[in-house]
Here is the input.
Amino acid sequence: MTPGGQRLLRVGRVSLLWRPRALAVGLGALMLALGLALLLLGTGTMQLSPAQVLSVLSGSGQDPVANRILQYVRLPRLLTAACVGAALGMAGAAFQSISRNALGSPDVIGFTTGAATGAIALLVFGTPGAFDTAAAAVATGMLTALAVLLLSGRGGAGGGYRLVLIGIGVGAVLIGLNTLLLAKGALDRVMSAQLWLAGSLNARNWGHVWIAGTGLMLFAPVLVALSRRLAVLEMGEDMARQLGLPVAATRIMTVVTAVGLTSLATAAAGPIAFIALATPQIARALSRSSDVPMVTGALCGAVLMLAADLISQVASFGLVMPIGLVTGSLGGAYLLLVLTRRDGLR
Here is the structure.
């Protein structure tokens, strides 16, 4: 059977419904991510060939300098980028689904800014460590999500334009608060916080990999499990209720899970624009599927993040360019494209 381009695989009493095009897109994104990873591991002050990279990764490398560079510098940076991109891709798909709006991504509706608030406060006034920063980011990210949900839910409506507009307003308030925190801090701490706010993969270590990877391990399975509910919810809340879907519980679980992913991704690499905004739309366009693109979104998010990292290193004009500048520039152009398309906003 092929309803809507789907295929049904039946083995005994077990049935699996899958979409060949979405599977092809996912496999293609995975192969592209592996190719970009190979290029990134060889890119830097010390250039390494793909053969050298593979020999080091396989444990047969004879150059101790190359071994140390890959093990302690490039591999943590690469894995952090991939995990952060995948997390933001899934979070963007979740937020765009519950808001039914192409602008419903965490960096637009204030959740990324809220997660950054706790991290900035710790960087400026506390004694920041990688895991302390992650805890602070998650705490303020959850508080921001709670505020947005409560404000957007007044009057019985919690999605669509209202969620986006209230999220933008809350994000604007938090930007002012973040600026105030920076103005009150010591100069050296403020400089460190400003570098973090630019969104950077420089000096990433295995602690940052654990933060972003833990977020994926904890929250990604939950979002994948919720994707069927979200697909029903996209048809409208009244229809979802008639089909027996617990709308309020689904929305709360989705927001909490997606905010957790966003907060930990932000703690690992700083605020990263564009990835969560564009990835779900790109995944939907490529797969031509009506399902919420959780898995394909994660893979496409990792590809975009790795590609942006490669651009930041290759086309940096001799400067150490934060990846946030690259994704921010791409995100601005993409946002203009979405806004000017007649069907760009759902």
Remarks:
- The chain has one domain: 69-340.
- The domain at 69-340 is CATH 1.10.3470.10 (ABC transporter involved in vitamin B12 uptake, BtuC).
- The chain has a mean pLDDT of 84.
- The chain has 13 helices and two strands.
